[in-house]
Structures are given as C-alpha cells and as structure tokens.
Specification:
Blueprint (H helix, E strand, L loop, with lengths): L2 H17 L5 H7 L4 H12 L5 H4 L1 H4 L4 H21 L3 H29 L2 H33 L1 H18 L16 H8 L2 H31 L4 H7 L6 H7 L1 H6 L4 H18 L5 H26 L7 H19 L4 H7 L1 H25 L1
Helix pairs in contact: 1-7, 1-8, 1-9, 2-3, 3-7, 6-7, 6-9, 8-9, 8-12, 8-13, 11-16, 11-17, 11-19, 13-16, 15-16, 15-19, 18-19
Length: 377
C-alpha cells in the first residue's frame, strides 16, 4: 500500500474506535447495571481530549518524528483495545477508554500533519478532503459494525477486531518516511484571546459549538430511546440506523458546489442549520423507520453546516489562521463532549420530547450565532 493509503486506513480504524461504544451503550448499561450517564461515559471520555488537542498537543508532538510518534500511539491503542475486550470491570473499562482518548489526538494530529508535510502543494487540498472523508467513513463503520457484531458475537468481538486492526496498522505505518519531523502550532494564551475576542471568530465558534453539541447529544442518547420503542431491532438495528451518516461523504465532496448556490456562505450555513433542525424535529416521531429517514436529513444538515463553516473560517482572516483553526476544532469537540452527557439530565427528568425541544433551542442559538457572524464580517 502507498503511504497515503495507509494513513487513510489508519484514520478509519482510529475513528471506528472512537465511536464503537456509542450504539451499544445500552448493552453496557444492562451488563454492568449502569445508569445512562455511566454508560455514555465510554464515549465522553474518549472525545474529551480532542477538545484541547488542537491547542496544546503541538508541544508534545514536535518533540518526536512523525512516524515514531504515530506508530507508538497506534501500538498503544491497539493493545488497550485488546485489554478493553478482555476486561470485566466497569471502572477498568472506563479507565482504558480514557487512556485511549489521550492517545487518539496524537494519532489524528500526526496523520493530518504528515499529509500536509509530505504531499505536494497541488495535491494537498484533495488529500485533506480524502482524510476528512476517511473520518466520516470511520464514524459510520464504527457505529454500524459495532452494533452488527454485538448481535452476532457479543460486544467484545468487535473490540478484539479493532485491536488486531491497530496492530496491522502499526506494521503498515512502517512505510512512512522516518526522518520527517514537523513543526506544530504552539499558541500563546495572548494569541488565543486575541482571536477569540474578534466578533466574527467568536460567533463562528459559538455556531459550531452548538451544532456539534446537538449532533453529539442525539448520537449518544438515541440508542437508549430506540431500545425503548423498538427493543426487537437489536443492536444491529441500532447500528443500521446510522446509515444516514454516509451523507457526510456526499456533502463533503459537494461542498464547493453547495457554496456556489448562495451569494454568501452564511446564507448556505443558515440553510444547513434549518435542514439540521428539521431532521432533529423528525426524531420527535418515535417510530423506527421515521427515525431512520430522519438520520439522513439530520446528517445532511450537520455536515453541510460543518463543512461550510470550516471553509469559511479560512476566508475571513489572514493572520493567526493556525490558531483560528485550532480554536475551531476545540470549539467543535468541546461542544461534542458536553453534548454527550449534559442533556442526560433533561432526558431523565423530562423525557424524550422535552429533550428534543431543548436540542432545537440549542440549534436556534446556532442560527442566531450565524446571523451575528454575517453582520460582523
């Protein structure tokens, strides 16, 4: 395999690991007698480090050659995956997921930076686009295969498979150039505050924060609701629901065409948020096939908004772009981390309908933030 293909494969496996526990959280809840909150921590603990990684991992990553760092990280997470599949203690399982969460940012940041440093300038944009598509494919496969394999062989099987895949990636990554050592963004606090105080950046970060907050909340809590309304669907049925996630690939590759349909990016973002909110509202109808259809609308709106905002970010300023992009990813994953557990309390005390309405209100704030973004530029 070519090095770039190995990078894409490793990215898919890594994102699979990040989201593999999400559709089978009800299984963990039943097996270990957990509350909803205790079960969803399997995803929250893995996602949380991604909120700070873009800002502070550069200090660690610059100290090691890219190949050595990413291979070591892949080996560690592969061994942890096998350990996870072999453990029967909830607290040990949670500790392993937390440890994996600390390793994943090193893998993803190294791989994306490696592409930027080794691919020709003419091809780097396309290569990064394929990298982003790989993350979407990984999110889809991690959820679908986890649910399917849990129904067929039990929840531990897929994590053994992931462990073996990471070990395979460790050997394949040996084809990367060994002497590549890169410079990463190491922002000062003054730079962070300087960017964040600019109104156009501030409102853009608020927008993406609330968008991924909503997306993460829905993805994390939907399996529990499906277990209530369609218990016969099994874990494979829950995993199959995420087929709509594949819309992310279609939207990503059509990003340029979508932008051309509108006079301004913020208008396209507004349409994306409306589509996102429409998909969210469809989940109020608690029927499996309605929810299955809703996932396509929901994911289309989310990925349309995300891809447009990330592109627009790089067009509205000429200074501190690396810091601005780092803050964007931090806002994105911080929203996802908080969304993965905070709405749990609304769901517990007020039920599914109020939970859904609260997410629509969060998206209303996203719509308002996008409006303020348009006025500030």
């Amino acid at each position: 395999m070519r090095p770039i293909q190995v990078i894409y494969c490793t990215t898919v496996v890594t994102i699979c690991s990040l989201y593999a526990a999400q559709p089978i959280q009800p299984v963990f809840q039943q097996e270990f007698q957990l509350t909803n909150l205790q079960a969803i921590l399997f995803t929250t603990f893995m996602m949380a480090p991604l909120g700070v990684a873009p800002l502070f991992y550069g200090y660690l990553l610059e100290a090691y050659p890219a190949r050595k760092l990413v291979r070591s990280a892949v080996l560690i997470i592969g061994l942890l995956e096998i350990w996870f599949a072999s453990t029967s203690s909830y607290f040990m399982l949670l500790a392993i997921r937390a440890a994996q969460g600390l390793v994943i940012p090193a893998i993803l940041t190294s791989l994306m930076s490696y592409i930027s440093y080794t691919v020709s300038t003419r091809e780097v944009q396309q290569s990064i686009a394929f990298y982003i598509a790989s993350t979407i494919v990984g999110g889809f496969l991690g959820r679908v295969l986890s649910g399917l394999f849990t129904d067929l062989f039990g929840w531990r099987f897929f994590f053994y498979v992931l462990g073996c895949m990471f070990l395979l990636c460790y050997f394949l990554l040996g084809c990367l150039q060994s002497k590549i050592k890169m410079e990463y963004v190491k922002p000062q606090l003054t730079q962070l505050f300087s960017v964040f105080r600019q109104s156009h950046y501030f409102w853009l970060y608020c927008c993406i924060f609330s968008v991924f907050f909503t997306f993460s909340a829905m993805m994390n809590f939907l399996p529990f609701e499906l277990k209530k309304i369609a218990p016969a669907s099994g874990e494979a049925g829950i995993g199959f629901l995420y087929v709509g996630y594949t819309m992310g690939v279609l939207v990503s590759v059509s990003n340029r065409r979508i932008r051309s349909w509108f006079s301004h990016e913020t208008k396209a973002v507004a349409v994306g948020i409306v589509i996102f909110a429409t998909g969210t509202a469809m989940f109020l109808v608690e029927q499996y096939w309605v929810m299955f259809s809703a996932m396509f609308v929901f994911c289309t709106g989310m990925f349309m908004t995300h891809s447009l905002l990330s592109g627009y970010l790089n067009s509205i300023g000429s200074e501190n772009k690396a810091v601005a992009n780092g803050l964007y990813m931090s806002s994105y994953y911080t929203g996802g981390t908080l969304g993965s557990f905070l709405p749990n309390y609304i769901l517990i005390y007020f039920g599914w309908n109020v939970f859904m309405i609260s997410l629509i209100l969060v998206l209303s704030f996203s719509f308002f933030s996008n409006y303020r973004l348009r006025l500030s530029v």
